[in-house]
Write a structure and sequence with these properties.
By secondary structure, this protein is α+β, with helices and mostly antiparallel strands. It folds into 3 domains: 153 residues, no CATH class; 146 residues, no CATH class; 158 residues, no CATH class. Helices cover 51% and strands 13% of the residues. The strands form 4 sheets. Strands 4, 7, 8, 9 and 10 form a 5-stranded antiparallel beta sheet that branches. The longest helix is centred in the C-terminal third of the chain and has 35 residues. The chain is globular. It starts with a helix and ends with a helix. The model has no long low-confidence stretch (mean pLDDT 88).
Length: 489
């Protein structure tokens, strides 16, 4: 992470703390009931449209919350500490929203501005556009010196983060499927506890799929759950061999693996932000790997980690600190990125020149298609669209009716009138020049239906901008000294 990023994050954190302190002084509070209501409405924790406790617990357990922010009470499990830290974070967010809402009551959006913003998204537009890509600047080339200059000017993007590799043993969950059993009572209990999942709604109301029809699937699910537990228990037995006895003696990782007739494998190097999908594990594997301490006889190995198909025990192998590589080490990548940057700049320059020429020729009566033909560019014509309708369609739009570059076209044309050309618009595969061939008012019913929500949205946007400035003022007024940033320097 760069010095600028660290400074920015620290400043945002101090703003947050300053406003929370002011909220305390003003008596602005958030109760646990409010936090619970907020969580119940959060779709992140929902299954089939309603809050799911198991999903909530799973997500909280996987959150990368550092132990330093735990709200520590004696006797609490790690999950309970993490849960309390997360609930406190949500409580603070609600309090900050309340403080922002205080400002929103004083914000007003003028009708003229509201109408303009609604028009921008509801007008029905037809456009023509051309795409310029790297084939239009194929003559661009760079030297090694250019790549070196790019590297020197953008060193942070080449920074290699802290990386580790681990040794691990894997306990296949499938190995325990044959030894586990499921009772009739367990099947019946599972069916009863998950009855809503077997509901079928039709014209006759709600009926439920009979147990006999889903029994095999339930048995398979329960057997897998029991096999997972058995694999985890086996991994725990392996872990116990690594724990020092009363005389300070313990098996090495390799000795324990030999006793269990398991092969010790080694992962590739990975950073704290990576998930090892090849092992079928989640972020808990990565988090455990970075907590390992090779100097601690009790901390160089992990507790059991569950993956999709295996239970794992991992131990330390290699660890490399974050560093900036030499140019020679990343020369190929630097050359590739420098060439892409040179092509992008050349493409942007060419698109700007074409646009300037097109604006002049349009004034003389030439059509957009005629002008673009002079530059050997193919013109595409869209179907009529509005920003509001495209946004509402989202991913539901069929492939045959899908508007290419929809988000870029909506943004580029929002404030343009008929007959105008957009500034060059960067897209994933090149640069667009967009010409408005038609712009007519949208459905008046839609315009009026979104007016209240649009006013609220604009008011809230202004309030948030004002809130950020207010946070800045509060922070300055507090005259706090940011010793964290100073220590980074």
């Amino acid at each position: 992470m760069s010095h600028e990023e660290i400074t920015r994050i620290n400043k945002q954190a101090w703003k947050r703390l300053a406003v929370l302190e002011l909220a305390k002084q003003w008596g602005v509070k958030t109760s646990l009931a409010e936090v619970q209501d907020d969580l119940m409405r959060d779709s992140t924790f929902a299954a089939d449209g309603t809050f799911d406790r198991n999903r909530f617990r799973q997500i909280i357990a996987e959150l990368p919350i550092p132990a330093e922010v735990y709200i520590d009470f004696p006797g609490q499990s790690d999950f309970e500490k993490k849960l309390n830290a997360y609930l406190e974070y949500r409580r603070q967010n609600i309090t900050l929203s309340k403080m922002a809402n205080i400002l929103q009551t004083g914000v007003f959006t003028h009708s003229a501005e509201l109408n303009r913003q609604i028009t921008n998204v509801t007008d029905v537009i037809t456009v023509q556009y051309v795409l310029l890509n790297t084939s239009h600047v194929s003559n661009v080339s760079i030297t090694v010196e250019d790549a070196k200059k790019f590297f020197d000017e953008h060193k942070e993007i080449f920074r290699i983060p802290e990386q580790v590799s681990v040794k691990y043993v894997a306990f296949p969950i499938s190995n325990y499927m044959g030894s586990v059993t499921v009772s009739e009572f367990a099947v019946s209990e599972y069916y009863s506890n998950n009855l809503p999942a077997y509901a079928v709604t039709n014209t006759n109301g709600v009926t439920y799929t009979p147990l006999e029809m889903v029994k095999d699937a339930i048995v398979a699910t329960l057997k897998w759950e029991r096999a997972v537990l058995e694999a985890k228990n086996a991994a725990s037995d392996f872990e116990m061999l690594l724990v020092s006895d009363q005389y300070g003696k313990a098996m090495t990782f390799e000795e324990a693996a030999k006793k269990f007739n398991l092969s010790v494998q080694t992962s590739h190097l990975f950073s704290a932000y990576e998930v090892l999908t090849n092992l079928g594990v989640g972020y808990d594997f990565t988090r455990a790997a970075f907590k390992l301490d090779p100097a601690d006889p009790q901390g160089y190995f992990s507790s059991p980690i569950l993956g999709e198909h295996f239970a794992y025990i991992i131990s330390t192998n290699q660890r490399f600190e974050a560093r900036l590589p030499d140019f020679q080490e990343v020369e190929k990548r630097a050359f590739r990125l420098a060439l892409q940057d040179a092509q992008r700049k050349a493409l942007l320059k060419k698109a700007t020149e074409i646009r300037e020429s097109a604006v002049k020729q349009l004034e003389k009566g030439k059509s957009f298609a005629e002008i673009m033909a002079e530059f050997s560019l193919n013109v595409c014509t869209t179907r009529p669209f509005s920003g509001y309708e495209e946004t509402m369609k989202g991913s539901d739009d069929s492939e045959t009716n899908k508007l290419m570059y929809s988000s870029e076209l909506i943004q580029a044309t929002a404030s343009l009138s008929k007959g105008q050309i957009s500034q060059p618009v960067e897209v994933e595969d090149g640069i667009l020049l967009v010409y408005i061939t038609e712009r007519v008012p949208g459905d008046s019913a839609i315009v009026e239906s979104i007016r209240p929500s649009f006013r609220t949205m604009l008011d809230r946007g202004k309030a948030m901008l004002l809130f950020d400035n207010w946070c800045e003022y509060i922070l300055r007024s507090a005259r706090l000294e940011d010793r964290i940033s100073q220590s980074v320097e």
